[in-house]
Amino acid sequence: MSFLAKWVIVFAVHHLGDCKMCLGGGGGDGGAAARAAEQEKTRQTNITKGTQEITDAFSGFNDDFYAGRKQSYLDYANPELDDQYAQAKKKLNFALDRRGLSASTAAADQQKKLEEQYNKYGADVISKALGYSNQTKTDVENTRSNLLSQLYATEDPSAAASSAVNRASVLSAAPDFDPLSSFVFDLSSALQRENAAQGYTGLASSPLFSSSGTKGVTYVG
């Protein structure tokens, strides 16, 4: 074999190796770019799947749910407010009748004042119910955000699904509402004015109202 023939063979073998590296290694990186692309594809697939799992687990947290949370507090607080209002009204009517003031201006004033206090406490109850609803919404969104952060860190859709179901169950449970404090109905000022106008002086030593024996109601006398 001539020298030229040998040189051609060596040249061909050398360049054939270069071509194999080009075709199989993506520019001579040993396949790193292809592997990285495949890993990113898998990562995106896992995140998409995990995100959907979280979305499905939290699908029940909608406007109806938050309205229900608000109504739960109203159902908890309003019966107690109504009961205390009824007791206050009964006490007031008894005191007015005992003094012969049932048809007086003081009676009308006190009935109006009592109703105004009741409406104020009712508005407070509604405000607190809305507060519970809004706090629940905040808790849900914070939990959802934390779950998504964990998913992006772990890229584990199964763990995300399990955590989402558990957290959604906890958030859906009925809350333990704060104990109700007494609703204070001040029923004495108008009667004091009426008594003074009629020359009655026994009010200071004999209060019209007492909270003794009356659950949750305070009467200021």
How large, in whole angstroms, is the Cα Rg?
Answer: 39 Å
Number of distinct helices: 6
Structural class: mainly alpha
Query: Gap between N and C termini, in Å?
Result: 127 Å
- What strand order characterises the main sheet? 1-2
Number of strands: 2
Query: In the residues, how many domains can be counted?
Result: 1
pLDDT average, as an integer? 79
Question: Which regions are unreliable across 5 or more consecutive residues at pLDDT < 50?
Answer: 3-13, 19-26, 201-221
Broad shape: rod-shaped
Major β-sheet annotation: 2 strands, parallel
Strand content: under 5%
Order of helices and strands: HHHHHEHE
Explain how this protein is built.
The chain is mainly alpha-helical. The protein has helices spanning 3-25, 32-57, 63-98, 105-154, 157-172, 189-197, and strands at 183-186, 217-220. Helix 3 (63-98) runs antiparallel to helix 4 and helix 4 (105-154) packs antiparallel against helix 6. The longest helix has 50 residues, at 105-154. The chain is rod-shaped and about 105 Å long. The relative contact order is 0.12.
